[in-house]
Specification:
The chain is built from five helices and five strands; from the N terminus they run βαβαβαβαβα. By secondary structure, the protein is α/β, with parallel strands linked by helices.
Length: 123
């Protein structure tokens, strides 16, 4: 399903570059946002096939951004994968409870990350 548009919401420049380069290598097009607010705005404007959402973001966090997207009829069907460095069990439980399409820990494992992306896009 290469060629699909994926929105990356990530405030760390190195993580953004890694994910952008990895997705580009696999033939995906990307949009980039560094805040939750910017991510929500870009999702509403471009309606990507998938959103990769960091949880710890400046401004609204990734969970609040996800909740805004989920409450909007235009974006509620876009799958969102949470990507976070937090190993806290409470945060992982919260991510699963609110309805993210998946969860990827940082630092990302390249093969597992791409498998998760492709699985969600094929669902």
């Amino acid at each position: 399903m290469a060629g699909e548009l994926i929105l990356i919401v990530e405030d760390n420049e190195n993580n953004m570059k890694l994910v952008r380069d990895l997705l580009g290598y696999h033939g995906y097009r990307t949009l980039e946002a560094v805040t939750g607010e910017e991510g929500v705005a870009l999702a509403r404007e471009h309606l990507p096939a998938l959103i990769l959402m960091d949880i710890q973001l400046p401004g609204i966090d990734g969970i609040e951004a996800f909740e805004q997207l989920a409450s909007d009829p235009a974006t509620r069907d876009i799958p969102v994968i949470a990507v976070t460095a937090s190993a806290m069990q409470e945060e992982r439980a919260r991510i699963e409870t609110v309805g993210f399409a998946g969860y990827q820990p940082k630092p990302i494992q390249l093969d597992e990350f791409m498998a998760a992306v492709e699985e969600v896009l094929q669902a």
